[in-house]
Every structure is written in structure tokens, then in C-alpha cells.
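Hi W., the glyceraldehyde-3-phosphate complex you wanted:
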Amino acid sequence: MTTKSKNVSTYKFYLNGKWIESESGRTIEIQSPYLHETIGRVQAITRDEVDEAIYSARQAQKEWAQTSLQDRAHYLNKWADELVNMEYEIAETIMKEVGKNFKDAQKETVRTAELIRYTAEEALHMHGKSMAGDSFPGGSKTKLAIVKRVPLGVILAISPFNYPVNLAAAKIAPALMAGNAVIFKPATQGAISGAKMIEALDKAGLPKGLISLVTGRGSEIGDYLVEHPGINMISFTGGTNTGVHLAKKATMVPLVLELGGKDPGIVREDADLQEAVKQIISGAYSYSGQRCTAIKRVLVHESVANQLVALLKEEIEKLSVGSPEQDSVIVPLIDDAAADFVQGLVDDAVEKGAVVVTGNKRKQNLIYPTLLDHVTTEMRLAWEEPFGPVLPVIRVSSDEEAVRIANESEFGLQASIFTKDIDKAFSLANRIESGTVQINGRTERGPDHFPFLGVKGSGMGVQGIHKSLESMTREKVTVLNITN
Ligand code: NAP
Ligand code: G3H
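Structure:
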């Protein structure tokens, strides 16, 4: 799957069961965010190659749709086994390519194997239904509808850089299990990890054509893929701007979009502050805040704000900062542009009067964990997603104000509420516009069988194992008309 020159591997792309070099003759260099050197090259494939991948997928899918669920589950379980066999190699690739610390990269790989196995099991236990005609007024017993789920055809799976294996497999596994073929377009920074994951699927012996790995910049091949008439459904995870762009391009195909977030951590005056701090620190700063579900703003009641900020400061200053190879929590951001963007948000807030409690220090793309207090709604940081280790604290005087500011956001992925009053927690949860509300816990996607969704600018449709299987199939109704 690779060729080597000057110790740097060039990864081929995967088309119809073969690893090949693109006829474009062009490759894209992948720079490690912390080694600051080229760690590999991936193919910049052509439109003709995209056509070929989609054509192969369409051919292969016809037969795949006829295979038994048990057979499909066999391939998926084998894939999970191969991922586990490759655990260290894949974790190292994730670490080098996207700068995730080794322990978390390893967790991502194992979590992916578990997700694949659960997906196979879940699909084995999904059943259709039958409906009698006479349950509708005037209907007749002579009609019986048999409702089953059938595959959609070819699924386009587009994944982001921050979970290059897990978020890709979260699309590929349900798509395959449901009888579809897949065109997998990884984030360019993440494409080597994606290639390793496909290598595991290849080792599992998946019939050729069912999956193709198409590499190339989204800006070059993205629109072509999305608008391609051979695609029957798109499952996309990434930034809101990209998602909105894609939604305008795609016509008459179902879309599931998991996009950005600005998850609030609401701390009421009666919260267990020690526990809230533990959850907020882990929620906001893990992998330098490069998680869609990171806590990206704290809305704290003014009566406990000083205490909360002091506790947060103490814990933030204990966070390890540096190399992913040393399992640091705070690692360099994906690239310099990402760090510039985060710095711009901090500078804007400081200029407008926010108080730096700790941090606001930077070495190239390494942003030290930063806590800003007295952030106001006039500052960009109150609204924009940094995707970096910077947490704004907004002081509020009531639950109503917290809910209002939480809901004024363009995003609606998740929210956390920290309180000892469970009735209040439910009443606030009901009023918050987000896909999920966590009570006394950090915002997070897992466990992976829970439904996972964003509302407003955070997405459309639902992921989570069962929901993904549903979104990658449609109902097919056969009506039996009983004649005597
Ligand atoms: P991104 O820049 O939006 O890229 C996501 C994917 O879209 C990449 O594979 C990218 O390819 C591709 N792409 C770019 N332009 C495209 C086009 N015109 N058509 C089709 N595909 C195109 O996002 P990112 O920087 O990788 O990830 C960070 C963002 O994702 C954050 O906003 C984060 O909150 C969000 N995210 C959301 C979730 C969720 O589940 N809600 C999960 C993870 C991340 P290239 O890399 O080649 O440009
Ligand atoms: O980055 C977005 C992911 O969906 C977040 O997953 O909450 O498990 O870190 P996580």
C-alpha cells in the first residue's frame, strides 16, 4: 500500500480492492503537527478515479445486498479483530498524523473495534414489522403490509481530522452492515490513519469494490463527490461551514451532518464545584479542546464564580503540556492556521476586557491551556468555536440568563448542567436547544450506542449505532392482498 523515498512513505489509494497510485501523478504531503516534518504522502486522485470508485461500488453493492446479515457480520468482526491486531501501529499513526496523545490514540482504536462489533450485533437484532390493514378506519383484514429495511446503495462517508479512525468507522461499519457500499473520503490530515484502517478491512477480506478510499483535498474533489449522481446518501462529520456548503450542493440524497459546537457548561449556585471542575477540565481541555463535544464556554452563577474560577485555575495549571508522545493533555493544534485562529479569539476577548486567569502563552501551534474570566457576549469567544484549549467564563445572575445565552448560540450540539437539584436540572435541560444535555457530567458523544446529534448549526440527522443503521437504510413495504 506504500512506496518509500527518503524514508517517507507514499500511500496509495484503495480502489476496487487494490492499492494504486493516482494517474494524476500528484501527492499531498502530510506534516505532523508536533514533529513539524513530513510523515507521509497521500494521493491526490482525479475525477475519473472518483467515477471508477463509484462505479465499482455500485457493481459490488448489488451482490452485497444479497449476502446474509451473518456473512456481513463475519466480515465486520474480522475487521475489528484486524484493527486490534494493528492497535499499536494505528495508534502511532494517529498520534503522528493528528497529534493526539498515544494513550488516547490507542483508546480511539480500541473504541473503534468495539463500535464495529456492536454495530454488527445491533444489525443482527433489527427486525422489520407487519401491519394489518384493518387497524385504519374502513381498512380491511385482507391487506397485510410487510415493512423491512433495505440498503440505500452507495454511501459517501466524509470524516474530520480529529477522530480519523473512529468517526470514519462510525459511518463505514453501519453502512456496510446495512448492505451498502462506501466511498470513504477522509480528512486530508487524517488520510494516513484512514488508509491504515482500510488496510485492516482489506485484511478482513471484504469483497472488492465495496469500499474505496478516495484521497484528495476536499476543496478539489469534495464538490464532485457530493454532487455525483452515483451517491445515494452522505454521512458527513466536520465543521459547520463545510457542512452547510455541502448541504447546498447535495440534491435529493439523504444527509446526516454532524457539525461544530459551542457546548456550554452551566454551573448553578448549588453545584458540587469540585465535581464540576473535574468534568469541565476534562471536557474542555482533552486533546487540546479539539473535540466537537468539548465544553467551549462556562456559564456560571455569579455567587460561585470566584470559587469556580480559582478551582479551575488550580487544575489547569496541573495539566501536562507538550508532546503527544509523552501523553500530554495539551498538545500542539492541528496546524499553525488553527493556532492563529484561536489566538485571534483570545486577543479579541482580552482587548474587550476579558481577564486572563491563566495561559495565553503560545509556541508556534502549541497553545497553552487558557482560562479567560469576565467574558461578555460582545466578545467573539462567547460565540465562536475555538477548537483549541481556551475556555471563556461568562458570569450570569440567574438560570434564565444562562439558558438565554446558551440558546443564543448558532450551535446546539450538547450542554452540561451542574447542580444538586435534579428537578431544576430537568427543567433547564428541557429548555436548552441542543441534541443532548448532560446532567453533572462533561459533554461527550459516547457511549457509542447512544443517539448522537446536533441541532441548529450543529447538524442534521442522528448518529449513534442504531440510528446510523436506520439512516443508511430505508423502509420497503410489500403489501399482501389476501384474496380469500
Ligand atoms: P472540515 O474542515 O469541515 O473537514 C471535514 C471534512 O470535510 C474533511 O474530510 C474535508 O476534507 C472535507 N471537505 C472539505 N471541503 C469539502 C467539500 N467542499 N466537499 C466535501 N467535503 C469537504 O472539519 P475538520 O477541521 O476536519 O474538523 C473540525 C470540525 O469538525 C470542528 O468544527 C468540529 O466541531 C467538527 N466536528 C464535529 C463532530 C460532530 O460529530 N458533531 C465531530 C468531529 C468534528 P479535507 O481535509 O481534504 O479538506
Ligand atoms: O469531535 C467530535 C467527536 O464526536 C467527539 O467525540 O465526545 O467521544 O470525544 P467524544
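The pocket of NAP (ligand 1) is lined by residues 158-162, 167, 185-188, 217-219, 222-223, 226, 237-239, 242, 245-246, 258-261, 292, 385, 387, 413, 454, 459 (CB under 6 Å).

W.
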